[in-house]
Design brief:
alpha+beta, Endonuclease I-creI, 4-stranded antiparallel β-sheet, 6 helices, about 45% helix
Length: about 160
């Protein structure tokens, strides 16, 4: 990862608190043995006319990809269990408004980084469902929120 001072991390955490999102999603898959996958994402948003800070964040963190949406917003997305875990861990001290989401995402990403998806126990899957719910409840707006019942169905769990 890039070179990161405490001041840079504090700035990035503040940016995330204001113009970012933390996501833990369970997606259905058509391919693969399990027919599902977990996605951990950290995303920073900025008006495309003022996207310079996103380039700087990408450089400091040493990871991510930038894209421009059709609505004039640019995004810096960071995916992957290990990357999300490590970045969330380095930002947690400085995050103020999204602390609950960041803690839940860190725990989920850590679990997913340490265990292969097909080796997750029922207890692990139940924890991941709880982390998804914590993040969804604390997010300002989430399209297509999945209920616990929906998540249990995707994971073949019974309550």
């Amino acid at each position: 990862m890039g070179s990161r001072s405490k001041i840079d991390l504090a700035y990035i955490a503040g940016f995330l608190d204001g113009d970012g999102s933390l996501m833990l999603q369970l997606k259905k898959r058509k391919d693969g043995k399990l027919k599902r996958r977990f996605m951990c994402t950290i995303c920073f948003y900025q008006d495309s006319r003022h996207e310079k800070p996103l380039h700087w964040i990408k450089k400091v963190l040493g990871i991510g990809y930038l894209s421009r949406r059709n609505d004039g917003i640019s995004e810096l997305r960071i995916n992957g269990y290990k990357h999300v875990r490590d970045i969330t861990k380095s930002l947690l001290t400085f995050i103020r408004f999204k602390k609950n989401q960041a803690q839940a995402l860190y725990k989920a990403a850590d679990l997913l980084a340490r265990k292969k998806i097909d080796k997750l126990t029922k207890a692990n899957l139940l924890k991941l469902v709880d982390y998804i719910n914590i993040i969804q409840i604390n997010n300002y707006a989430t399209k297509n929120k999945k209920s616990k019942k929906d998540l249990f169905k995707i994971l073949d769990l019974t309550p």
